[in-house]
Amino acid sequence: MTDRVLFGTDGVRGLANDKLTPELAFEIAMAAASVLPTTKGRQVLIAKDTRQSGDMLEAAMAAGFTSAGCQVKLLGVAPTPAVAWLVQQQGAMLGAMISASHNPAPDNGIKLFSASGSKLSDEQEIKLEKSIRLRQWKRATGAEVGRIQYHCEASEMEPYLNHIANQSTHDLSSLKVAVDIGHGAMVQLAPVLFKRLGIPVQFLHTQPDGMNINDNCGSTHLESLKACVQSQGLDLGIAFDGDGDRCLAVGPQGQEIDGDRILYWCSQYLPAYRDQDTVVATVMSNLGLEKALEASGKRLLRTGVGDRYVLEAMEKGQHRMGGEQSGHVIFSDQQVTGDGLLTAINLLNALQASGQSVNDLLAEFSPYPQVLKNVRVQDRWHNTWMDHQQLQAAMKSVEQQLGQTGRLLVRASGTEPKLRVMAEGSDSEQIHACVDQLVDLIQREMGL
Fold this sequence. Notes:
Layout: E1 7-8, E2 11-15, H1 22-35, E3 43-48, H2 54-67, E4 71-77, H3 80-90, E5 94-98, E6 107-113, H4 122-134, E7 148-149, H5 158-165, E8 177-180, H6 189-196, E9 201-204, H7 223-232, E10 236-240, E11 247-250, E12 256-257, H8 259-269, E13 278-282, H9 287-295, E14 299-303, H10 307-317, E15 321-323, E16 329-331, H11 340-354, H12 358-362, E17 370-376, H13 379-382, H14 389-402, E18 406-412, E19 418-425, H15 428-446
Parallel strand pairs: 3-4, 3-5, 4-7, 8-9, 8-10, 13-14, 13-15
Antiparallel strand pairs: 1-2, 2-6, 5-6, 10-11, 11-12, 15-16, 17-19, 18-19
Helix pairs in contact: 1-2, 1-4, 5-6, 8-11, 14-15
């Protein structure tokens, strides 16, 4: 067994009650309470999205933490960024979010937050995995056993909502907006915030039933949001993912607005970020973003895939804005993690600050043609694909073909036994051919 098996790029994730069992959730809680350093007492906050399996995993985690002597506060259905913010504000030792983000409802996941509100580091996750393998935990007894505070009142979220509302710098009441909740974790908070800011909103997919989260809705399925924006003549559509830490948007003609465009617009038009000379993003961000930032006198600093790597680079270089193409955007002077609500509000403020229409803003930079394909591979190749000499030679050849006007990225998925092959460049036919060449090779040599 390797040092890191359970944790992927965004916590532990898998089919609930199969790969992600209540026993494993209990063990993760016990390990976290036992090995993670804290100077903040023994309180833990737990929240979940709307998946049916959330109750089961919430109960298991609460049992694990209380068995280790922690005091548990259950926040109920709440978005990931609210958990991260409340952990920091309430002086808790840990926060846990039960969600598989954009995955289908049968999946679920667990993300942990330190006392600072940040996601755990690689080193901390390795310690957790080692602790789970050894199972040498000290169990509390007698009066040391923890207690559970059930079903916290909605007022628990008021400080978080007030904080997000206070980041708005413009009157947004003239904008006509649709918001796709995706039957997810934003179902309770998003309507309250948009009403508080006076924004007239048409809400979509607001009736979670435990199994319909992300089902042809939300940030990974923008079709119904596009149709609503176009048919109603709205200015913008906003879509959240299942746990609410990501935000994507669509324009008046259904144009997709990804994290790259959100980063660019906010860097150009929000007064708090115009003076920043560096924007942090991952290796997945489009080359067009990099060129557009350069043209405006800024630079793009790239990191590995995962918003925690973006945050690490931001903290190291004292950069205040960064994010991912997928819609994780971090404004580090406003929030400790990616926050879909905050991203949406900043996007709307950037639109108002620009004095332009969405269509005008969309014309400001053109993404390079980009092709991304996923290939399911045998388990043995998921973490050893870099040792395949024929693939390495083919990748080198493709990079030479693309030269200075293109880019190739091959990486392993952090949550599935897949390799992701991405290429971008000025010549669309060329990048399609390059990706197809590598995909064919991977399927032939490593595929199932």
